[in-house]
Design brief:
Helix 9 runs antiparallel to helix 10. The protein folds into 2 domains: 3-163, Rossmann fold, CATH 3.40.50.720; 170-286, Orthogonal Bundle (N-(1-d-carboxylethyl)-l-norvaline Dehydrogenase, domain 2), CATH 1.10.1040. The strands form 2 sheets. It has a 6-stranded parallel beta sheet, with helices on both faces. A 3-stranded mixed beta sheet has the order 7-8-9. 53% of the residues lie in helices and 13% in strands. 45% of the residues are buried. It is built from 13 helices and 9 strands. It is α/β, with parallel strands linked by helices. The protein starts with a strand and ends with a helix.
Length: 288
């Protein structure tokens, strides 16, 4: 069992930290809203700290899952950041979906200070975090990854090292590019089927068993049909992720025409007031 800290108790971090405690790890948490950290500690028997730096003191591994690049810099290299309390032999594992650029920046800062860094964005959404079945994509040194993998598996069903620092974030970008196209295709199919007068749920039951099947169809098809968008991964967050993908594509010369178009469609969903709707809300745009 390890002594760990977890920074960021949002819809992902809160249950991820809970799984760590349930597996017997000694967990200290930090959250920008202190009341949430206090509630987590009272529910799960861990400790809470008022700053990332204090949460990281004396820990073997420090995990983070925050909002974006700026939030990540604040909890790591900010005035009260965790990096100020970390020393030789410790590891910082970042589960934020952020840029590969910030992963490399923080990886270099950690190395200069004598400790290790793993970028480890996750896929599986809130349900995956709640149920402890996330998929984790990692970048960093092989020996460091080998040390933290058993702890990561407290809330994951799959975790893999995919290359040097930044590789985890690049893999997550691929994941979001795939999802954008899949959800738009599913939304178009549902809208088409409705206009054709078909029993949509019956059709989805059939085609999900064939070549058209996907996680999105299995998990979001029927809720999409019912117009239920009040759960899962929010449109605002998807647009943040797609902006990271598109920026990286400009840097490496990739062409992402479908991704760019779906990003525009999500912008239209935001204008409908759907910024906090689930990403499957692309259907709402087609049915206006």
């Amino acid at each position: 069992m390890a002594k760990v800290a977890f920074l960021g108790l949002g819809v992902m971090g809160y249950p991820m930290a809970r799984h760590l405690a349930a597996k017997g790890h000694e967990v200290t948490v930090y959250n920008r809203t202190a009341a949430k950290a206090e509630r987590w500690a009272s529910e799960n028997g861990g400790r809470h700290a008022p700053t990332p730096r204090q949460a990281a003191e004396g820990q073997e591994i420090v995990f983070a899952c925050v909002g974006n690049d700026d939030d990540l810099r604040e909890v790591t290299i900010g005035p009260d950041g965790a990096f100020k309390a970390m020393g030789a032999g410790t590891v910082f594992v970042d589960h934020t979906t952020a840029s590969a650029e910030v992963a490399r920046e923080l990886g270099a800062a950690a190395k200069a200070a004598g400790f290790s860094f793993i970028d480890a964005p996750v896929s599986g959404g809130q349900a995956g975090a709640e149920n402890g079945v996330l998929t984790v994509m990692c970048g960093g040194e092989a020996d460091t990854y080998a040390r933290v993998e058993p702890v990561i598996m407290s809330y994951a069903r799959a975790s893999r090292l995919l290359g040097a620092t930044g590789a985890g974030q690049l893999a997550k970008m691929m994941n979001q590019i795939c999802i954008a196209g899949l959800v738009q295709g599913l939304a178009e199919a549902v809208a088409f089927g409705r206009r054709a007068g078909l029993d949509i749920n019956a059709v989805l039951d059939v085609i999900s068993k064939g070549a058209a099947g996907s996680w999105q169809m299995e998990n979001r098809g029927k809720t999409m049909v019912d117009g239920k968008y009040d759960f899962g991964f929010a449109v605002d967050w998807m647009r943040k992720d797609l902006s990271i993908c598109l920026a990286e594509a400009r840097r490496n010369g990739s062409l992402l025409p479908v991704t760019a178009l779906v990003d525009q469609f999500y912008g239209e969903v935001q204008k409908l007031g759907g910024g906090r709707w689930d990403t499957s809300a692309l259907l709402a745009r087609l049915e206006q």
